[in-house]
Amino acid sequence: MSGLAKQKKAGLLSIGFVLTQFSFSPVFAEQRPFNLGSIATAEQVAGWDIDVRPDGLGAPIGAGNAIDGEAVYTDRCASCHGDFGEAVDNWPALVGGEGTLASHDPVKTTGSYWPYASTMYDYIYRAMPFGEAQSLTYNETYQIVAYLLNMNDIIDDDYELNNKNIGKIEMPNHAGFLIPDPRPDAQSISGDPCMNDCNVPTQIIGKARDIDVTPENES
Amino acid sequence: MTKKHDQSLSLSRRSLLGGATALGAASVLNSASAGEVNPDNLPPNVPEWTPYLGEGVDANPYGLPSEFESHVVRRNVEWLTASAESSVNFTPLHELDGIVTPNGLCFERHHGGVPEVNPTDFRLMINGLVDRQLIFTLDDLRRFPQTNRFYFLECAANGGMEWRGAQLNGCQYTFGMVHNVQYTGVRLSDICREVGVKPSAKWVLAEGGDSAGMTRSIPIEKILDDCMVAYAMNGEALRPEQGYPARLVVPGWEGNMWVKWLRRLEFGDMPYMAREETSKYTDLMKDGNARMFTWVMDAKSVVTSPCPEKAINNRGVQLLKGIAWSGRGKIKRVDVSLDAGRNWQTAELHGPVLEKSLARFTMPFEWNGEEMLIQSRAIDETGYIQPTIQALQAERGVNSIYHNNAIATWMVNKDGSVDNVRLG
User: Bridge partners of B333?
Assistant: First the structure.
């Protein structure tokens, strides 16, 4: 917050400086200190402003359900994520993982982990399929999201997901995120740290060499 | 200071003179690509490179390192990721001195490969809660007032494989997702004045022009405090893999937010909850809840020599080298232990020590074939002390992946080779 206050002050000072230097320029009627760049047209902004917020702002007009989504998913997604979202090779699983987050091996999927359905729409449209960004239609994207939500037992297979309700889907792990950042944590020491004869664990309980997953470096 | 440490610092005449006692196994490990010694090149002979003319100017219009340094490269761990386009490699910290990372050695982290952005067609769009939605060309950006700053960039997942135990046997693989360069560019506060930010704007969505369309939400206070749009690093244009022609610089905060190939900044009144700040870059705690918006990179340090890739070749005097950094400001002090953290001594911190930048430390010590357990511990200007892995695990468990800034332990074996080990 102090940074904001500081910058506001600095900003006012600089604007004053620029005004004396370029007081002939009519642009300063609107206090534009550098007069750089060009106005973005509504059409230009619409083409690039593809993000969708948790409240649904930005969701383009369109709709789809899981029944229609199955074919699109099978065609465009399943080769990496598996027919049922179970994942192929090292690619991410999209379905399942409920109840695993506190376990030794948590499985973080759209169903078990993701807090917002809007993020699924936003990400799939902007970045998927991998290497074919922004190639899906709006309706195809709604269909794929609906299919994944249905596979995760969040909506029925005939539920029509659209731009009006994408911001209202309740995700199972919605309440699973903690804000604000509690760090710095893990500080058992206040003041100067121990320098001599410190009571610390000194037994060797593991060696990376024994695990043997380090790549060989050929020079 | 304990007696043991006094001894380690007293460099005897014997150790200085007798340091050439080569240790077979260790010197093979560390011989790099220079090969065997050729006596014909040693005094009193005239070395083979002396009598003849060497290459003239322009043999390499863009200069390259010596061929004998060809082992100094970024390396990846193939099994970590599904594809090279969405993957990471690591800076060879153990081969570097000073605080500047050469541009070609800065680690890479891409989510959709490296786009080839033509600078003529580059555009940065500013939209949302602003008085004027504007589009800037690269030339526009270069006409803004300029700022030049050194900053470290660390991936939040640096050391992420080491939460449960010592897994990768190398300084490069366990600490190498950090680099430090001088950025040249525009203060975002200047861009904000140009577009006129509305009072209701609290967050900025930064978006990349790559195939991943990388997006992160950043609070407006940070944007106005010290963020910049950089178009140069270490004096030259950004490298393609570092976001050419322009990237965001978010000093002290996790590398994922430093959006590369920047194409758009949108001002809004709430966070956008992009995939990379919900599904990824959230820190799963042991109770199954996850911390969100853990942006700052806490203080950290590592000994870069000796380390698993830098064995000790000779008995006697050694120079321990390392780096330290903090996302909360300047490094105040670095302590080094040679006995698993029982006893510590303060290393020499070399200037310049800058805010949110790598700092270099060194410490001489003597080694005579005994086992050693080497650690370093950074303290930043806020008084924060780099924690042990046990302290981090007690607080967070072992599943958080991100923000592991624990003290590491390098074990020097009797033959001079070095292992990444876990103490308990």
Answer: B379
